[in-house]
């Protein structure tokens, strides 16, 4: 029988946060190109939209009017337990009803979705397998209405990759926190059937599941032979507690070419390929852009390192003009620099920069196969360190936000678990530190929801957690949750666990508080909306937008405008922007508008960059959607 798999990685529906239509077709292309390369076709909850709009960009979401401080519920009295006491709505891994499920379901027929088992570095590896009932009688996976999302939870899938032959250290590519022996963790997810209650699974029937290793991970892995391991476990299983497992041998080879495609039936689109010559000394670049404004121009550049602006140049920057039918076609053959050859040999994916946008190439497959299905990716069991020395660990991770982005002072960024609760993230402060509270900034959809979060603490050397606070009630997207602990605690490890939420679990910022911790500064936010014209005359030649400081919404943020890297104007963002107030980013006087035609050379294309000054650190930070390209006459 056919069961719909409702795992955690392929959920769509985060089209909210009110993104509006870009003002020009070229701006639409640039906005499209800002989307990070990913195998998911729809961004999940907790993923900001990159659309460029004159109103506050949904990528620039920060705290709105501060929420009333949470008072820990009576149940938040510190409890000597190493694990949360689950909410009555949370499915129990040791429920007797699941015993039959664990005894019956088995993973089988692990295979490459593309057919061949040879992949290019930088090509996503997609595998499929079946969860099959191998019992002699039908089995029913019980329906749970936890997290306001009916689902039938049936266990955990954990995946690993093992280098074969001479051992290669993969710590730089895959997280050592998820390592056991020669195996390196590549994913881990709780699994469920979604929607209505599932019918009994008859003997021999089951469901097909897709999983894989991301293109960014395979680009980092050295060429060679690997074994991909898949394990099926109970929901509360330990590392070694495996019900059933499978393995698949794979091979990675150096890429000889890369491709990207931006299909857009109703607007601009892009197709591009890069192909290496024999010996990897030259590269041939083919780029076709369609649906542009006739006569408009666009700056094109290819660098190594995806969209890293400091990556080695592969194809130098040049400005191209669209034809009368709104098309740009460019073919270039160029000798690679030594730096570009080294970057390609190291597995760095190229990135195509088009004007203000960027999109990473993916490696051309070694062997092509038709009908590659959309895939739900498993996140790694990661451990990452921030610039301040805080080490973060989480239950899962996703392409939509990595661990360090939960503690980097930039609320445009986030850690996204890639799935629904339960999920957690832990901060290691390095030593026992006196803590008095914590500030949390959620990213969630729906914007207002009933949620349950718990904050746990653990001392250095201890395996026992204490419950510092329970946050049960209504939370709002991009609205700070201020938590004062009932009493100060000397804690090294702080874990934030989400037990109930209708949204994927994602945090924009987590800030611990205490007398020995310097008050952190959150960077200003805003959007460089820019002129509506690519070629502008008179008062149509301007830079505009808005800026707001999440540390103090009443503060007027200083912004500056740079033309080709030189500052031409600086002043407060204090003009009327009622749409900013309506979105919750201040009192409505966070706007700026600067006429530029008297500040730059006319009839020449210029890069216009707008930055905001962080009052606490003195650091200038780029606004969203900057820089832009503008020609004034």
Which features does this protein show?
4 domains; Jelly Rolls; 633 residues; mainly beta; globular; 6% helix; disordered N terminus; Immunoglobulin-like; eight-stranded antiparallel sheet; 41% strand; six-stranded mixed sheet
Structure, described:
This protein has 633 residues and is mainly beta. It folds into 4 domains: 74-85 and 382-513, Jelly Rolls, CATH 2.60.120.260; 96-253, Immunoglobulin-like, CATH 2.60.40; 257-363, Immunoglobulin-like, CATH 2.60.40; 525-632, Immunoglobulin-like (Sandwich), CATH 2.60.40.10. Helices cover 6% and strands 41% of the residues. It contains 5 helices and 35 strands. The protein has helices at 25-33, 96-104, 215-220, 338-345, 578-582; strands spanning 105-112, 118-120, 125-133, 151-163, 179-180, 183-194, 206-213, 224-233, 244-253, 257-262, 269-276, 282-290, 297-304, 313-321, 328-335, 350-354, 357-360, 362-363, 383-385, 391-394, 415-416, 423-442, 448-458, 466-476, 481-500, 506-513, 525-528, 535-536, 542-548, 558-563, 566-572, 591-595, 605-613, 620-622, 628-632. Strands 19, 20, 21, 22, 23, 24, 25 and 26 form an 8-stranded antiparallel sheet that branches. The protein has a 6-stranded mixed sheet with strand order 2-9-8-4-6-5, covered by helices on one side. A hairpin with a 2-residue loop joins strand 5 and strand 6 (183-194). The longest helix is centred in the first third of the chain and has 9 residues, at 25-33. The radius of gyration is 26 Å and the shape is globular. The termini are far apart. Residues 1-95 and 368-382 have low confidence and may be disordered.
